[in-house]
Amino acid sequence: xxxxxxxxxxxxxxxxxxxxxxxxxxxxxxxxxxxxxxxxxxxxxxxxxxxxxxxxxxxxxxxxxxxxxxxxxxxxxxxxxxxxxxxxxxxxxxxxxxxxxxxxxxxxxxxxxxxxxxxxxxxxxxxxxxxxxxxxxxxxxxxxxxxxxxxxxxxxxxxxxxxxxxxxxxxxxxxxxxxxxxxxxxxxxxxxxxxxxxxxxxxxxxxxxxxxxxxxx
Length: 217
What we know:
By secondary structure, the chain is mostly beta strands. The chain has one helix at 100-110; strands at 2-3, 19-33, 50-51, 54-67, 71-79, 89-97, 114-116, 118-123, 127-134, 137-149, 155-162, 169-188, 204-215. The chain has a 7-stranded mixed barrel.
């Protein structure tokens, strides 16, 4: 497995790793049959974490308002089994941002297939809402209402694993913030790239405020 910290890349107009980002996010966890993943399925070389034939997907809608870059993001990560890893691991199979430097940096540094989209995201203390557009079409919309907040600010760590020429590319990420449970309502375009999630409800959803995230550490 290739360590992303040592990955050689040409100099480009995007920040070098690691990226330190601040903002807010809503994370939802979904369960669906591996056979229903469709275009959200990871590279065949990355073993999916499965229970009774079910795969698990995390959708992360974030608004980064400070730090290395400022941008909105919607990422879809399928949970996978990383060789020798005890920490959670996921492979990003679909992701959109509204910043060209973030898109280029994600692709070049970590093989994360970032594409550009238009976002309308609003984060407050009790709610997180957003709409993502591809062209003139709404592909995904989210409305999250915060519930009970945890009394501590947990620090969470995991890995993003992406297919690479020399083998899977492993990147560590860490997140710390004010965490709260809540209810998320997603609206997914049945003809869009996230069609596999259309008509489904996530298993659980959490909100993150005053979030500090580090990628590529």
